[in-house]
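ok posting inputs for the shikimate-3-phosphate job
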Amino acid sequence: MQKTVYKNLKGLKGSVTIPSDKSISHRAVIFSSLAKGTSTIKNFSKGADPLSSLDVVKSLGVDAEFNDENTLIINSSGRLEKPDKILDCGNSGTTMRMMAGILAGQNFNSVLTGDASLSKRPMKRIIEPLSLMGANINSEEGHAPLEIEGSGLLGIDYTSKLASAQVKSCLLLAGLFADGLTRFEEPYLSRNHTEIMLKHMGADIEISGLKVSIKRSQLKPLKIDVCGDISSAAFFIAAALIVPKSDIILKNVGLNPTRTGIIDAVKLMGADIEVIDSYVHSGEIAGDIRVKYSKLKGCVIEKALIPRLIDELPVIAVIATQAEGETIVKNAEDLRNKESDRIKSIVCELSKVGADIKETPDGFKISGKTKLNGGTQVECYHDHRLAMSLYVAGLVCENPVSINGFEWADISFPEFERLFAQLTQN
Ligand code: S3P
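and the output
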């Protein structure tokens, strides 16, 4: 689907409630499938990725249906059953990496597959540590499909070079089925929804700074109301910051400190953004954010900030084109392993609309403030975050921008256009 975006002259106004967090939704449905009894998940994400996790657990014998109030009700015996088909994770790296950890420790064999993009993404990062635990996984040179031979696992002490919540979650989930203690350490803190939810569900888990350890545990059912996704809110934050006259309120946004790097980064750039209310929501912090059009300046984004805003870097690149001076993103090489090579793809597409942006091995450099010409077609590389980032860029381009493949936005944020319209109707 091609989507044409026009320059926005009136600004974004009003308020919207941000839809469900993708990362928390994945974990809620997957962890509930391991708990004996009935779990209830309110506000489960309607993105294609969490629906892939839902499909996979159903194929493993778990009963999961939406009730009349749109709450997902999960009934599980606490044990997964051997699937009678290949498990399709679609476009979702989170589904594949978390399920691999669980399936490695079952007493049956299974196969995880995914779409063309997921089949290109690196799986050695989980295959290697799982193999050290005793797992047997065959792959196409570190890529899906993953053929997993269920076996007995033994806990390991693992220091990861990557700050990756998917790798961390995979090992912690394997640790739930392993003998002994499984310890994981990462260089910077990645999102910690897994630790919060597993603790909440009664797992024998201990967290200490960058280290986390877990022992074999039986989980208790979950009751959760999933907060909004800050990674979705990021597109509206960006649009409000760069489109003159904007002043918006985003409601029920997840504010877990391991995810709020975007707020810290735009504050460094001089943004007028504030949390106007916050509360704890099923063990996770959430709240309302007010964002106004702002005069921005460039900044450096690196080190521990990177995992706290990893998914927001494409849209931060868009913001940086409208900031005075240079913005430098460093230590973000893992962006090349996302749904697309997000360093290459954002540099290439923003250059097409007139941005002054240069690729570096581990990030990019942007000089601003640039008047973007637009008036061209851009590609989203089957990448939902590219699609929505380019939409935001289109709002400040002098001439219309046509985005090819905009339907990929549905992977995480099918409500994007409807909510955007609410903010621009006034
Ligand atoms: C996710 C973790 C991040 C992120 C992805 C979702 C998760 O990946 O990019 O969109 O839910 O755990 P990494 O942990 O591999 O960086």
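notes: The first strand starts at residue 2 and ends at 5. The chain has two domains: 2-20+227-424, 22-225.
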